Amino acid sequence: MSTVDENELKEFREQAEAWFGENTPREVDFMLPLTFMEVGTDEQFNFLRDWQNKVYEAGYLGAHWPKEYGGGGLDRAFQDAATKVMSAARTPIMLNAIGLNWTGPLLLDRGTHEEKQKYIKDILSAESIWCQGFSEPDHGSDLGNAQTRAVRDGDEYVINGSKIWTTQGNYADYMILLARTNPDAETKYKGLSFFLAPMKAPGVETVPIRKLTGEYGFTQTFFTDARIPASSLMGQEGEGWIIAMETLEYERGARSGQAGGHVMMLTNPADIIDLAKSAQVNGRPAIEDPALREELVKLMAEARALGLNSRRDKIQPLTQDYPMSLALGSKLSSTDFYQRLNAFAISLQGTRGAYYVDDPSAHDNGIWQRGYLNSFSATIGGGTSQIQRNIIGEHVLGLPKG
Amino acid sequence: MSTFINPAQAPAIGLSEEQAQLIDIAAGFCRDKSPVDAVRALLEEDTGFNPDIWHEIAELGWLGIGIPETYGGMGLGLGEIVPIVEQMGRHLLTTPYVGTVLAAQAVLRGGTEAQKNDILPKLASGTAATLALCEDHGDWNLSNITCKGSVAGDRVELSGTKYLVSDVHEAAYVIATVAVDGQANLVIIPADALPQNAIRREKIIDETRRAFAIVLDGISLPADALMDARAAADTLAHIELAASLLAAAEMCGGTYSVVDYTLDYLKTRKQFGKLIGGYQSLKHTMVDAHMGYERARAHLYSAAFLVGQQGEGEIAVRMAKAEAEEAFAFAADRAIQFHGGYGFTYDCDAQLYRRRAIWNAALYGDARYHRRKLADLMF
């Protein structure tokens, strides 16, 4: 465990604050994506790509990744400090989320030296954009049953099938692809393999899918006799499921950790109080309605509990009865809360809840309405809230599988 | 990792070493002393508690935790009492403990020097006491008092009726709120000044407790039985928060146990050839009950940490009470339901917890009451 010089860290943080203070772009004349899943236009994509590159070149992304592969070679504390500065300054997000938070940590943990040399720097500089190929039209929650087929042919693999909900699929250079190499394996999991697949390979086609918000941001990817180099395989055939499961752990800050920077703008629940003060319901400020006040208190208490629990998770005597509970429950609780917060925000607007983004009569330019619709990406994606309850019920409460 | 929500703005939560030790000690003590068959046996008992356990609690020094050392206590605070009450709540261990602790807080905050010197050391060493606050109007604004204390010379004459007073027969002191010349105050009634026929045992929903109505009419006391009038408003504000905090602790404890009790059943009961805990409607609802518990616990220990603080303390405590009430009511309600036919019987322990949850909501202001106050504090 390396010891960090507190003065050095302080200086680094101050420099970061100054740099972001000066360099954060303030005025843009298009809708700035709040998350990496909302990048739907070329304008948004190019803007964010340039921004990430700038942040990386300034030394504030991957600061704790090995220098040998393009990182800064510093202690993780430095990157964490930079990330905090970015988040607090509400800078535009880091575009290359899959690369920074999934592929990169995976390669650093178990990639070969050649793989790290080939991919890491371009992940950080946003030269190579990554997407994720896990879910399929017929296999979403049941990922272990993925059927996209990869057949070895000489020094290539031939891929056939389809992946869906591929965020940034139309922009990506590479996909972390979970595909079936052995349909006759002793379990469905053991038949899967993990590939670092080039998206510009022949036979790969992406088709945009329009989201319920009206915007774009993800695609369906079709593989028709697509050919990728055999060297795209990570680890061995049959290790795909284990590797895929590892990528899920990085979100919880496990092992070498993610590159840093924020990939989504976080909502301050307290902003809803401002809305309640400025919005009118039936001609009166929403904040004066007793029923709405009670609902608002409940939501604020819930927001508070989210923050308190992330702190309580570090106080062992207070979690010893159910040690995994807060970590395993955090996605469910925060995404469910976010959804209801936005739904309530719409109701606070009274009649103006009927407006949508870009109408001058919309409160906060319709951000709550859009936020509510977009919230389903979090309650459905990354393991639905229903699957989360299965996981918590089984792994925290010890209930039997269904 | 939090998705979408900025967690950075949470207020404080922390745990002192003493609190951490008390969690473990109280857990062991309550588990040993209060298995559920002991709880059930006490339901039929007149006093509703085991005097040997009460003496052991006194021996442990737990009654002196919130009392300063100069008065024979340990000089810690409500924060350290929270884990004890939480564990008592887990095991339905009932004694005059909370009533005595609250009475001590009242005397400490609003008593005259003579009262503090006389009474606090006794309470620290195992003498029971209780608060008589509740009136017919059921208003938990503690300064809304219709009972009266009329001062004439060096005597004070009481009138009015108090309800839902805990453990009157054990209490050496009953501390009642009375209005003296229209101003809120508290009076310390020694046990021997209470006419026996003024006390009526009430039939309450929580059978683990004993509650009484007291008719104060005709009780005459030396005027120095009144507490310090200038400190009354502050004392009542403190009592309201102290009582709410300890109620939240008890409710969190109860929520943990009723969830645990139900999980045990779901892991052993089979229907249609499968353990019923595998059925999603039960599994998912138990997850929701558990997560309600985790939220309530976060608020509880934040409130325990902040209770001394002006402003922030009140917000934290009121939230803790409201959230604990909701979590407990939901978990206990579903516990009855999920035990099937057995859940409908007197023998199923779920009903013990559900009755408790109703009692805890009825006293010291329910969730709606606290949330109304919170809205005024926060917006």
Descriptive tags:
heterodimer; A: 402 residues; Butyryl-CoA Dehydrogenase, subunit A, domain 2; 3 domains; 41% helix; B: 379 residues; alpha+beta; Butyryl-Coa Dehydrogenase, subunit A, domain 1; Butyryl-CoA Dehydrogenase, subunit A, domain 3; three-stranded mixed beta sheet; three-stranded antiparallel beta sheet
Strand share of the residues of chain A? 5-15%
CATH architectural group of the largest domain in chain B: Up-down Bundle
Radius of gyration of chain B: 21 Å
- Large-scale geometry of chain A: globular
Mean of all residue-level pLDDT scores of chain B: 96
The number of strands of chain B is 11
Oligomer class: heterodimer
Strand content of chain B: 5-15%
- Given as residue ranges, the uncertain stretches of chain B (5+ residues, pLDDT < 50) are none
Short summary:
The complex is a heterodimer of chains A (402) and B (379). Chain A has 402 residues and is an alpha+beta fold.
Structure description:
- The complex is a heterodimer of chains A (402) and B (379).
- With 402 residues, chain A is of the alpha+beta class.
- Chain A has three domains: 6-128, Butyryl-Coa Dehydrogenase, subunit A, domain 1 (Orthogonal Bundle), CATH 1.10.540; 131-252, Butyryl-CoA Dehydrogenase, subunit A, domain 2 (Beta Barrel), CATH 2.40.110.10; 271-396, Butyryl-CoA Dehydrogenase, subunit A, domain 3 (Up-down Bundle).
- Chain A is built from eleven helices and ten strands.
- In chain A, helix 1 packs parallel to helix 3 (76-88) and helix 4 packs antiparallel against helix 5.
- Chain B contains twelve helices and eleven strands.
- In chain B, the strands form four sheets. Chain B has a three-stranded mixed β-sheet, covered by helices on one side. A three-stranded antiparallel β-sheet of chain B has the order 2-3-9, with no helix packed on it.
- At the A-B interface, helix 7, helix 8, helix 9 and helix 11 of A face helix 1, helix 7, strand 11, helix 8 and helix 9 of B.
